[in-house]
């Protein structure tokens, strides 16, 4: 936990304004904020988003911006069929960003062929770019991967990846947008 206003040297009023706008997109609306006139205490991920000046798009903006399938996968936790997405067999260099908000998620240097039919990476571009939570849907216990800025569903993380992390970030192509280098 960090004192946001202190770390960013921002007036508390400006931070409070940002939170009012973005509140429902951060941690599913359950933002654990302790606020008073002088101090706001926030989790680390929120701090990172603010430092990068990124703002989570509203649901209305996303409905306009995304196709109905993109919206379904990103915002409703859907899954594209294996071997059908744009990036499972893509070998181009660049940065894969969140299709909903543009947050940089993965670099092509960490992409590898997992044989799964989905784009797979062994690590996010930064430690805090992707957040995870336990997903118990479909009778399985899995680790869901979400964009740390807008909370969109990206895919799942499995413990069968290559070195150095041993992790497989199994993503839906439709959740990513490659910015080529
Ligand atoms: Zn995002």
From TrEMBL:
PANTHER family: METHIONINE SULFOXIDE REDUCTASE, METHIONINE-R-SULFOXIDE REDUCTASE B1
Catalytic activity: L-methionyl-[protein] + [thioredoxin]-disulfide + H2O = L-methionyl-(R)-S-oxide-[protein] + [thioredoxin]-dithiol
Protein name (database record): Peptide-methionine (R)-S-oxide reductase
Keywords per UniProt: Metal-binding, Oxidoreductase, Zinc
Pfam families named among the record's database cross-references: SelR (PF01641)
Domain MsrB: 59-181
Species this protein is from: Galdieria yellowstonensis
Any one biological process term the GO annotation gives: protein repair
